[in-house]
Each structure stands twice: as C-alpha cells, then as structure tokens.
Design brief:
This protein is an alpha/beta fold. The protein has 14 helices and eleven strands. The structure holds nicotinamide-adenine-dinucleotide, ligand LNCXM5UN and zinc ion. Its EC number is 4.2.3.4.
C-alpha cells in the first residue's frame, strides 16, 4: 500500500506519514544520538505499545514504557507530574526522546510533558485513533485540563514527526472512530468542501476504516490542518479556524466531566456555531441544514439538554479565543469562508442554543 507524506511547514518542518505499516519508520525517525526513548501510552493499549517498544529496543535504544490512564483521565497535572518524575528517575536528557502512542488525549499529554521536560525534548507522535491522526497529533498544540476547564495549560510544541499507521484503526471502538469524523467534517466546512461531498456520498463507509473514501478523508483533513498550522503555529490569527465549533464543545465536555467524547461535543458545537451565524444573518439556512444532516448521517449528535445553558455559558468564558470579558466565536459566512464574531450579544448566544436544545 502507498505511503503518503504530508509536509507541515514552519520553523521546524516535519512530515505526517500516512499508510499501513508506517510504524516501521519509528526507529529511524527517533534518530541518531538518542539513547533513551520514553514511550507514553494508555495502559489499556498494550497490544499496540508493546511492538512499538520492541521495535525501538531492536534498533538499539533503551526504552522506558510509561503507561498512563485511558483517554481524558490522562490529561491532568497529576499524571503529567508522574511522567516528569519518571523522566527524572530514568534520566531523560535533552538528547533523548518521547513517543506518544494512543488517541488524542495521550498525544496531547505526551506532547505537553515533552514540551516542558528540560524546556523541551524531542517528541514523535504515533496517533492510533481517527481523531488523533487527522487532528490532535498534528500541529503541536499540546495540553492538559484543569478543574476550571479544557486544555487550559499547554504549549505550542511541534513534533519531529507523526506516524499514522492505518492498521491501528481496525481496533478503535466504533463510537470513538465516529467521533473522529466530527473533526474531519469540521475541516470540510472551514476549508475543503470535497470532504463534505465524500462523506455525503457514502456516510456508512465514512463510519468504518475500510470505507472507500477513508484514506482520502484522512489525508484531506490532515492537509487542511497542515496548511493552517504551517502558516500560524501559535494561533495568532488563521489557526483559530481550527477551533470552529469548539467554544460550546469544550463547555459541554466540562459540564459532562469528560464523559462525552471530544468529537461528539464538537459535532454539537458545529451545529451551534452554524446557528449563531444564521441568526446573525451571515449564513444561509441551507448550510445550517447541511451541517445537521451530514453529522446525523454518520451518527453524531446535534443537540443538547436545554437546562444546561447557564452552566455552559459560564464555562464558555474560559475559551482561549476570548479577550477579557468579550467572547469571540469562529463563524462561517459560507462554506470555506470563515470569520470571527466579536462580543456577540447574550440574546444571540442563547437563541442559538435554543435552536439546538432539546
Ligand atoms: N492538540 C490538538 O490539536 C487536538 C485536536 C483535537 C482533539 N484533541 C484532543 O484529543 C482528545 C480526543 O482524542 P480521541 O478522540 O483520540 O480520544 P482518546 O484519546 O480518549 O481515545 C479514545 C479511546 O480510544 C482508545 N484507543 C486509542 N487507540 C486505540 C486503538 N487503536 N484501538 C483501540 N482503542 C484505542 C483510547 O484508549 C480511548 O479509550 C481530546 O482530549 C481532545 O481535546 C487535541
Ligand atoms: O489545532 C487547533 O488549533 C485546534 O483548535 C484543533 C481542535 O480540534 C482541538 O480540539 C484543540 O485542542 C482545541 O484547542 P483549544 O486551544 O481550544 O484548547
Ligand atoms: Zn477538537
């Protein structure tokens, strides 16, 4: 099967490698001069992390396997502190490396501890979910949660490389796989309408790794992300478009204590952002309808409990796009025409929520 290399430009360029069996490239990517490799992976994924560790050992590296809690439970300061302690005990130096193996929660955590240990050691990301391949592991946004909200502590810290081995997708639980489609569909609305056409052409196929368009969907979304983060790593402007749908999504995740998947919350957030833009008079009804129908067609949620609004609104305040007390939302004027809505009225925010609430 073919291997695709998507270049992420910027001050520290790297490739996102996509294909079946590309994990074989990991030892070479770690590179000369590295003595110890710390492999950060959920304890629940030994069948994926063990061969990764074995291949690194076979290549002559000292390997430290550091299991972490599953999913979002790993994105805490406590888990980060345990990893920093382990790095100290195992003597990870500036010429060593960290490898993050897992879903987006794991790659966010691994990237963050690599960014902060000794003020930055080499990190290579091995995403093993659809969402992590098309979004989380690409672009160098790393972070953990605090009790006050999602991803509130973190760093922009690009990896040395990203290996998306499509073989790992076969074991991803269906709900987690489908959650990744929300970020792919987001990419369609903000930048690449062909993504929308491919999903609409075969929604059932989009839900499985064997789908006819799976490879194209993955590569097109990675390309969207690579283009954006290559031009604006630190989110000084353009990169905000990748946050489309996330102002409400992160508030929902926090209100749910992270028992909802990130991608599911993003799906609801995408419909909310579309409704805000429609009520603001900037987005056509047809695009809002299309947002709902494409997400529904792949089995993603598009509505949320009405009574949650006051708590959601409170959590939206810590959104990183806010400036002082003023909220800023990423909105569409049309498909692939993205704007910002500065300081929207409370009435508009609540009316849009009413449109998506049940
Ligand atoms: N940094 C970024 O730019 C960025 C972008 C998007 C999302 N994110 C973050 O990514 C996280 C969501 O990522 P996610 O959807 O991958 O969730 P996740 O990391 O929680 O993984 C979902 C589940 O799948 C399991 N899993 C992972 N790989 C598997 C495999 N190959 N086979 C079987 N099970 C597997 C995990 O252990 C977990 O239980 C959130 O924390 C979100 O904030 C970050
Ligand atoms: O890469 C980005 O930039 C994004 O916003 C991508 C999002 O899908 C992702 O969920 C990100 O982690 C959200 O970032 P945050 O800055 O809102 O915490
Ligand atoms: Zn996201």
């Amino acid at each position: 099967m073919t291997v695709t290399r998507i270049r992420v430009h910027g001050d520290a360029p790297y490739d996102v490698v996509v294909g079946t069996g590309v994990l074989a490239e990991l030892p070479a990517l770690v590179g000369e001069g590295v003595r110890t490799v710390a492999v950060v992976s959920p304890a629940s994924l030994p069948e994926i992390s063990r061969p990764v560790c074995e291949s690194l050992r076979a290549a002559g590296y000292e390997v430290v396997s550091l299991p972490v809690p599953d999913g979002e439970q790993a994105k805490t300061v406590g888990v980060a502190a345990e990893l920093w302690s382990a790095f100290g005990r195992y003597g990870i130096t500036r010429t060593d490396a960290v490898v993050g193996v897992g879903g987006g929660a794991t790659t966010d955590l691994a990237g963050f501890v690599a960014a902060t240990w000794l003020r930055g050691v080499k990190v290579i990301q091995v995403p093993t979910t659809l969402l992590a391949m098309v979004d989380a592991a690409v672009g160098g946004k790393t972070g953990i949660n605090t009790p006050e909200g999602k991803n509130l502590v973190g760093a922009f810290y690009p990896p040395k490389g990203v290996l998306c081995d499509l073989a790992t997708l076969v074991s991803v639980p269906r709900e987690d796989y489908v959650a990744g489609l929300a970020e792919i569909i987001k990419g369609g609305f903000i930048a690449d309408p062909t993504i929308l056409m491919l999903v609409e052409d075969d929604p059932a196929g989009a839900r499985v790794p064997e789908g006819d368009h799976t490879r194209a969907l993955i590569e097109r979304k990675i390309q969207v992300k690579a283009d954006v983060v290559g031009a604006d790593l630190k989110e000084s402007g353009l990169r905000e478009i990748l946050n489309y749908g996330h102002t409400l999504a992160h508030a929902i995740e926090r209100v749910e204590d992270y028992r909802i998947r990130h991608g599911e919350a993003v799906a609801i957030g995408l419909v909310y952002a579309a409704e805000v833009a429609r009520l603001d008079g900037r987005l056509a009804d047809a695009v809002v309808d299309r947002t709902r129908s494409i997400l529904t067609s792949v089995g993603l949620p598009t509505s949320y409990r009405k009574d949650a609004w006051p708590r959601l609104r409170e959590h939206m305040r810590v959104d990183k796009k806010s400036r002082g007390a003023k909220l800023r939302l990423v909105v569409l004027d049309d498909i692939a025409r993205v704007s910002r809505l500065e300081d929207p009225s409370e009435e508009l925010l609540e009316s849009a929520f009413y449109e998506i609430s049940r």
